[in-house]
Design goal:
313 residues; mainly alpha; 70% helix; elongated; Annexin; metal-binding; calcium-dependent phospholipid binding; calcium/phospholipid-binding; annexin
Length: 313
């Protein structure tokens, strides 16, 4: 369930562009007007606004936004205004240019999108960076992570509900065998996690739990500091229960002395049109605090108002 709220009657793209232009003119920028428009338009409506703005004013809307606003507010607005595939492509490129084993952005993109959406991300990456996502992943990641991430971002999983229980039982045993021997990067384990459909993988993991008495992910906690094991756990959680995964990302971003604005912005801008309502429910169940209240307590100004608007206020 999306958290995005769109008015029952939406102005034409030309009218929205006129109002945005007014927000940019004069001595100061009208940030509230920018939020009132862009934070309440869906992806197709935002795309029309961008196209119309370029046609009327001869300038890219993203360039105008970049000139007029700054900081965390600018990042949130820019990411939100992009097409979802372009946004993911830019996030992936950013993650690769500054790649660290603890960065889960690539896993989120590969495991929390549909096959069609992930294919669109790869196309957008081609168009934006004149390289393939797969070759950049191979070039910027290290050996063990490369074995996992290249097939993850390259996959085009079957989306249907069919399940082969005989296969689920046999592959549950394969997973158990590899984990028992601590062969976490074995090609069979990687193959199962990166190629099977969601329905098939969930059946396999359920079979693993039933036959061996513990959840697959719990067997990947032998070394809490091992980032590769953490990546495997993240891939499974992202794939099987994305709302709980992203609720945890938001929780970790908010708790502590400082806020991880990049992680918080990524969760809200990428999930507002997908399942942010479910993420809010998972966050509330885990912390007993509404996510919008937690965000309001840890952010401020126009950045806070943008995130709160995307959360459904």
């Amino acid at each position: 369930m999306a958290s995005l709220t769109v008015p029952a009657t939406v102005p034409s793209p030309a009218e929205d562009c006129e109002q945005l232009r007014k927000a940019f003119e004069g001595w100061g920028t009208n940030e509230a007007l920018i939020i009132s428009i862009l934070a309440h338009r869906n992806a197709s409506q935002r795309r029309l606004i961008r196209e119309t703005y370029a046609r009327i004013y001869g300038q890219m809307l993203l360039k105008s936004l970049n000139d007029e606003i700054s900081g965390d507010f600018e990042r949130a607005v820019i990411l939100w205004t992009l097409d979802p595939a372009e946004r993911d492509a830019m996030l992936a490129n950013e993650a690769l240019r500054n790649w660290k084993p603890a960065n889960r952005t690539l896993i989120e993109i590969a495991c929390a999108r549909t096959s069609t959406q992930l294919f669109a991300v790869r196309q957008a990456y081609h168009a934006l960076f004149k390289r393939s996502l797969e070759e950049d992943v191979a070039a910027h990641t290290t050996a063990t992570f490369r074995k996992l991430l290249v097939p993850l971002v390259s996959s085009y999983r079957y989306e249907g509900p069919e399940v082969n229980m005989k296969l689920a039982k046999s592959e549950a045993k394969i997973l158990h065998d590899k984990i028992s021997h601590k062969a976490y990067d074995h090609e069979d384990l990687i193959r199962i996690l990166t190629t099977r459909s969601k329905a098939q993988l969930i059946a396999t993991l359920n079979q693993f739990n039933n036959e061996f008495g513990s959840a697959f992910n719990k067997n990947l906690k032998s070394d809490p500091k091992d980032e590769f094991l953490a990546s495997l756990r993240a891939a499974v959680r992202c794939f099987c229960c994305p709302e709980r995964y992203f609720a945890k990302v938001a929780r970790v971003a908010i708790k502590g002395l400082g806020t991880d604005e990049n992680a918080l912005t990524r969760v809200i801008t990428t999930r507002a049109e997908v399942d942010l309502q479910l993420i809010k429910e998972a966050y509330m169940k885990r912390t007993s605090v509404p996510l919008d209240r937690a965000v309001a307590g840890d952010t401020s100004g126009d950045y806070e108002r943008m995130l709160i608007a995307l959360l459904g206020a």
